[in-house]
Structures are given as structure tokens and as C-alpha cells.
Description:
The complex is a heterodimer.
Chain A: E1 6-7, H1 12-21, E2 26-27, H2 28-38, E3 43-44, H3 50-60, E4 63-69, E5 75-81, H4 83-109
Parallel strand pairs in A: 1-3
Antiparallel strand pairs in A: 2-5, 4-5
Chain B: H1 3-15, H2 17-41, H3 46-57, H4 60-70, H5 74-92, H6 94-123, E1 135-144, E2 147-151, E3 154-155, H7 156-165, E4 169-176, E5 179-182, E6 189-196, E7 210-211, E8 227-230, H8 232-239, E9 249-252, E10 255-262, E11 279-282, H9 283-289, E12 305-313, H10 319-340, H11 347-350, E13 353-357, H12 369-402, H13 404-412, H14 417-454, H15 467-493, H16 497-501, H17 513-545, E14 555-561, H18 569-584, E15 589-595, E16 608-610, E17 614-615, E18 622-627, H19 631-635, E19 639-642, E20 656-660, H20 661-667, E21 677-680, E22 688-694, E23 708-713, H21 714-717, E24 723-728, H22 732-744, E25 752-757, H23 758-801, H24 803-811, H25 816-846, H26 861-887, H27 891-896
Parallel strand pairs in B: 6-11, 8-10, 18-23, 20-22
Antiparallel strand pairs in B: 1-2, 1-12, 1-13, 3-12, 4-6, 4-12, 5-6, 7-10, 8-11, 9-10, 14-24, 14-25, 15-24, 16-17, 16-21, 19-22, 20-23, 21-22
Helix pairs in contact in B: 2-3, 5-14, 6-12, 6-14, 6-15, 7-10, 12-15, 12-17, 12-23, 14-15, 17-23, 17-25, 17-26, 23-26, 25-26
Amino acid sequence: MTDERLDLPQGTLDLLILKALSLGPQHGWAISERLHQVSRATLAVPQGSLYPALHRLERRGWIAAEWGTSDNNRRAKYYELTRAGQKQLRAESEDWRRLTAAVALVLDMA
Amino acid sequence: MSIIPEVRHLLRALFARPALERELDDELRFHLEQEAAKHVAAGASPMEAERRARASFGGVQRIKDDTRDARGIALIEQLSQDVRYAARGIRARPGFAAAVILTLGLGIGANATMFNVVDRLMFRPGPFLRDAGSVNRVYLSHLEEGKPRTDRNTEYTRFLDLARDTRSFSALVPIGHPTLAVGTGESAREMNVDAVGDHFFELFDAAPAVGRFFLPDEHTRPRGAPVAVLSWDLWQSRFEGRRDVLGTSLQVGLVNATVVGVAPRGFTGLGDVDQRPALYLPITTYAGSRVTKDPSAYYTNYNWGWLELIARRKPGVTVDAANADLSSAYRRSWEAERALSGGIPPADSARPMALAGPLQVARGPQAGRDASVVLWISGVSLIVLLIACANVANLFFARGLGQRREVAVRLALGVSKGRLLRQLLTDSVLLSLLGGVAGLFMAHWGGRIIQSIFLRGEVTLGVLGDTRTLVFGGAAAIACGVLTGLLPAVRAGRTELVTQLKSGARAGRERSRARTALLVAQGALSVVLLVGAGLFVRSLYNVRTTRLGYDVDPVLYVSGNLRGVRQSPAELIVLAHRLAEEALSVPGVVSAARGLTVPFRDTWSQPLFLPGRGSMRKLGSFTLQGASPEFFRTMGTTILRGRGFTDADRAGAPLVAVVTEKMASALWPGVNAIGQCMRLDVDTMPCTTVVGIAEDMHQRSMVDDPGLHYYLPIDQFHPEDGALFVRTNGDASAMAGTVRKRLQALMPGASYVNVTPMREIVGETQRAWDFGARMFLAFGLLALVLAAIGMYSVIAYDVAQRTQEMGVRMALGAQPSDLMRLVLGDGMRLTATGLVMGGALALLATRGMTPMLFNVSPRDPAVFGVVAAVLCVVSVVACLIPAVRSARANPSEALRGDS
């Protein structure tokens, strides 16, 4: 079976997590599911690698964590975008758009 | 990113680890269960679902590790690992650790002690002082014969002028520091008293231990209320700390004062190191108690400059603004003084200026020789620390060479170089911190002696009770740890893996250049210190042996204090003669004589005219001594030509004088001075005939050349004034108590005598050289010992490394003496390099010492020669042990193995 999925460029996982959380608080599994679905299974995000990223973002104060109850009535850790996180998301999205536009420009020139 | 969540996170990560671990487990388990549930819902078996969930998740253990790292505590965990590793290293090599700790301890201890001294002398505000940054000591200066003259002592009238005409200060407080007899009769002792103005105690955040401080209406003029506030120490020593001390009366000078309060423990007024007041009086109480014809004189005229001014600037007033304000007020005051008394130049030419200077005298314009010696010695202690660091760095190098294979193995196992560097640095910093602890203890116990020299017997808590010194010690220890560990650690990080892992690789035979440089630097620095020590010792020797024009050790100075007991001039003359007779009857006393002034403490002078030549003012100022006939014998002053005084030179007899040789040749160059006529005071006075020439003498300063000085018979000059000089046939200091007891019995009423050995009076002026020589010598020797240990350890290590080479040489026919010469020659080459560099450095450094030296050139060849010889001898000794060991190398053993 050939793997058509793309590895994530360095640093983009953070951006994707922030984006996923911009719609509302989520727990880790839900985030991973969401990334999987929205990218139509194109992006290869090893589920486990989500967690170091989540803890790093929490340390930086971009997201905040709180224990809550899941849909199926289980205790789950919910992450939420903080104000600093929203700002970071805007800045990083903008950077990303400019970068991809520039790269596309260069590629199209040929 | 904001720092607060980061810190909170880190703290939680550090202190709530078990909880965090549980949470992480829960979180990951929830994820896996959700994922598995998804697969079950899609129709997989539970077993299969769980397998798939785990597969898509990745290695749980690794994810956990990564997550922990993401928490940001990896660094701290590694640090604690490194500390544990270093501690194991210390236990494994106690000898090595002890050498490092002891060496750094000596260096840090010396520096902590000097820091403590400098801090107290120059930077630390007195205890209890509130907002020290806004408090200044006032200095007044003006031009005198074109040269600026600065003084901090001034008059009470001046204080009133400045207080009235300045706007910059919320308080301007006059403080006098008289020495007064406290108590009566046998228990009377002279003590330092602070006579303080209103608002003095408001400068401090101090509450009285008992009773109260002074009230504003106790500072009345001309005479304030007879009240006193005791220092804590006096309260304890005289009154055993009894609370009923309030209301007790205590004789202080001429004031019969009532005790109204006790200052809190540790309160020392302004905190000046040489003035720890025993008690406090209102300043007008003291000033008004002095016996004068006009009790208002002290606050209306400008004749008595005896107090200092302390000012607190109002909030927002800069020092510059305060200076301008003070200066203009001083100018007005100067003109007021000029209007009052003649002989004062106008302000335009004298340029009176005032300065709100630093509170600490040692930092102000009147800082003495003491302060600069203290700074030099601090520099010296820093050099000692550098030498200690060089030593320790060398030890680390040596150890690093021995550990190269271990380091290589660790690198091969994947330890990063950064991690290795951190770990080696942790090791050196840990050892250095232990050295710092050792050093602070040494400073605490040993440093007391040094402190008591510099801080004049001030009772201190020792450095262990002093936060500022502790912080300094800690910072110094960390700096030393980094300094000593960095170079060897970087070197270790450069280990060549393959070479080192190959079995049998020998440590590099060549001593590294860094180690050689360290050795040479140590030698050079010790040369600098030893040269400094030598120069100071020579200065002290010269100071001690300078002929002052009188003997010092066998002489006692006895001064009487009448303390308000009224005596007629005739009674005073009788008393003076009786005291002299009584002193003579004490066994061991050789002679006793009356004299008007005492060298280094006071001078007497008056205008001097020569017939036909007018005033001699142009030649300089002439100091004079009133002397009884026994004076020259008592002081040991030699009469070079002519005669001294006799009993025949009494009041009414022809006026005579003895002049010093220098004065004789100044007044009558090339002519016999004996028989010449001088007119004293006014030029219409009858002739005072010179009858003798005495040796030159130092009255004012021992550094300057002897002054122009002459003697008059005391009976022809001021028979009722003066003090007594007593010559003993041994050490005068030992007899001071006996003499005092015998003479005190003759004193009428509350009057009393003070007996001071001349050595003490002269010693005060020699203090700077005295402690300069001691400290330079102590630190210089410490540096020498450290350098010698460094030399020994490096050479010994080399010899051990070269055992095989030595064996080969022996096997090829080298004699033991050849090997010894090899090792010694190596050491001597290092020593010679160190000597040359150190000598050059010393030539540069000692130039700055010139003002502190006495009759010694900073390039004194004898000092440089002795230092060179000492260094050579010491390094020969340091090399000799390893050299002998090398000569004993056993060829077969050395060649056999991987030893």
C-alpha cells in the first residue's frame, strides 16, 4: 500500500492545533479526529505526537487546560484557546499564507 | 509569550510531579479508549480495536518522555542529576576535593573579609539610618594661598547661618565629637561623646530602648538641658542594663547630666568607624558647659570650628542643587564672618564653596591614607583569589587529563557535548560553593583580626551574620566555579574519541600551553604581591626608624583635665611641680619634664621677628615648645651645640631659646646662631637670645620634612599651662597604669589625668603603614604558598605522567642526577618566566603606590632582589620532591606496563 499522506512541515502542528481549538474547547482525541477529517486524511499526524505539542502550547500560555466531562460521561482534559493563543493563531496563519503564496509563486515561475 | 503561565507551569512541573504524571496517564488512556471505541463502533473486535488504537498512537513511553520534556523541566532534572554526579565525584576523590575547597576557601575568605571592611568603610550607611541616599556630610572649602583647603569641621555660628540661608534640606544637624570624662573620681574615664543638634535622632529609624530621645526645647542656647542618652553598650557596662537608669545623674565632662534614654542595641550614631559614641548630649548642652567669659561666643563668633554638619536633602533636590544652595549660603556666611573679624580675605578671592559630600568620610574629599591602603589591599586580595583560581583550574586540567578515557566513553555513548560541559561546570561550581562556605567560615573567625585593625576595634557580628558579605561570598564562589571549570571543561569536550578509546593511549606528554600559562601567571602575580609587601615593609621600617627628634618608646605623655575645678595660675604651677615630683618617685621613672604641646596632636606658634629683618613669616611657620629644664633629657632630644635650659632660666631672667638646626640655618645661614637675638610676638619685644641648637624634630607630620621649631623655657612663657612628659627606663606602656594611679591621687576635686604612651600617639600616624605592611605580607605569603602548591602539583603530575619516559632514559644510561636536573630545569624555566613577567607587572603597578610609600622608591632594587630570591628558593623546594621521585624511577617497572 502506498502512503499518500503528507508529513507535516516543522512547526505547523502547533498552528493546526490552535486552528482546531479556535472553534471551541476540545480534548486531545477530538482534536486529532478533527485534523484527520478536515484534512481529508491527507495530513499524517501521529496521534501521540499531539500531546507533547499540547503541553508545550499550554506552557507558553497559548492554550489553557481544564478537566471536564466528555460526551460519553468520561473525565477528559479539555484544551481552550487563550487570548494570547488567538493572537498567536492570527499571526501564524498570516505568516503561513504569505509563505505558501511566496513558495507557490516561485514554483509557478518555472 | 507571557512569563507568568510559564513560571506557574514550571513550578507545578517541579513540585506537583506525581499529580502531573497521573494526569498525563489519564489523558493518554482516555485518548486510547476513545480511539478503540471508534474502531469497535466500526465493527472491530475489542482486542483488534485496542491494537489499532495503539498503532496509530505511537510509542506511549516515548510520547510520555516527549511530553515531560515539553513541560520544560528537563534542564532542572538534568541539573539535579549533575549535582548528584558531582557529589559522587567528591566522595570518590576526597583529597582532590579538599585541595580545591581549601584553595578557593582561602581566596574567597580573604575577599569576603576585605569586602566586609570596604563595605563598612565606604558604602554601607550606618545602622538604622533612614533613606541613606538623601543624607550628606557637608564639606566646606576655600582657597588659601591659591590652594583649595577643604574641611568638614566648622563653627556653630556657621551652622546657624547655613541653616537659615539654605532651602534644600529637610534637616541640617550639627554634630560634635568631643572626648569627655564620664563618671567621677577613680571611675572617671574619657569616652567619645556625640554632641548632637535637634533632629539628629530623626535621621534614623530607631526607637529608644528605654526612655526617650531629646526634645526640641532641650536644645536651647546658650546652654541646653543637662540630659543624656546612653549608648546600649554604656548602659550595659556601667548600669548593667537596669531599667531604673532613667533619672540617674551622670557626670559628663562639665555637665551633671540626667539620663533620659538609652539608644537601641547596635545604634552607633553616624556609624563612623572611629567614632562609636558612648553617649549623646544635646549639642548646646555641651557647648554651653565650656568655661568661657562669654557663654554666647560659640554661636555668635567664628572662632571655634569643632562640629560637623549632616544634611538630609528634601525629596527631589539633587546633590548639585544642594551644593549650589549651600555654596551661596556659605558665601553669605563668609562675608558675615569677615564683617565680624579682620584678617579674612574677601569671598571673591577665597572662593568659599560648600559640598554636600558622601556620608562616609572614606569616600569624601578628606579620605585619609587608611582608605587608600584598604582599597589597595582589597585589590591584593582579589589577586590572591585569581591565583587560587589558577591553581584550581590547573587541578581540574590535571584531573581532566586523567579522565579523558571516561569522557570519551561517555561521548561515545551519546552524551551531547553541551550536556558534558554543563556537567563539568556543575562539578566545578559545586566545589567552588563548598570553598565559598569554607572561606566564609575562615573570614568569620580569622577575619575578625583584620576587621579590628581596619575598623578600629568595632565589635562586629562577623561575616556570617552579615547578609551583604554572604551574598558577596556566594557570588564570588559561583564566579570562581565558572572561571576555574570553563577552560578545562571546554578542553575535555574537545576530546578526540578515537585516539582516547584506543587502549594504551598515553596522556599527552606535552604539558598543555594553557596549564603552563596558568603557572606562569601565578608566579607573576605572586611576584607583584611580594614586591608590594616588600615596599610596605621597607616603608614601615623607615617610618619606625626615622629619627623624630625625640625618643618614643620610653616616654609617657600626661595631660591633666581640670574639669571646671577653679585653680589660680599660682596653684596650677604648684600642681605641675608636684605632679613632676610625684612621677619621679615612681620606681622605673627616670625623669619628668613639663612641656606645652605634644607632637602630632597640637602646635603652638607666634610671630617671629629678627632685628633689622622684620617678620620671618616668609620663611614658613615656626612651631614652638615650652619646655622645663629636664625636657631635653626626658624626651631624649640631643642638644647639638650650646646648652639646654637650666633652673636659672626662670621668669624674670634674661629670655633665652633653643632652636633646631634647621631653623638655625634657615634664619642665620652660614652664621653661628648662638647669641643671636629673636623678637617674639611683636617686634618691639626684648631680645630672646639663642643659647643652644637642638636636633631637628617632627612636630606635625612624620612624612614631611622636619619643620622650623624652637624651644622656650616654659617658666618664661606659659608657666601655668602644659602637660607632663615622663621618661621610664623600660617600656613606657607597661607603666602607664601605675603612673596614672599615683598622679590621680594629687588631682583636686573632679579633675583627672590622662596618661598616654608616646608610642600610641606616634603609632596613630604610622597606622596606615603598619597595617599596609601586615596585610600585604600576609596576602603576599598566602599567594606564594598557593603558587608553590600549584607548581608542585603540576610538576609532580608531569613526573608521574613521564614515568615511562624516565624509565627509558634510565635504561639508556641516564643518571638519577640527570633526571633531577631535567625536572628542576623545567620548573626553573617556568619560575624565570614568571619572575620576568611579574617584575614587569610590578614595575607598572607599584608606581601607583608611591604616595603610600615612605622613603622607598617603588623600584627599590633590594625589594625586587629579595622577592626574586624567595621565589626561586620556593620553586626549587616545590620541584624538589617530584624531582627526587623521578630520580628513583625504576626502569624495569616503568617500561613494563600501562602504568
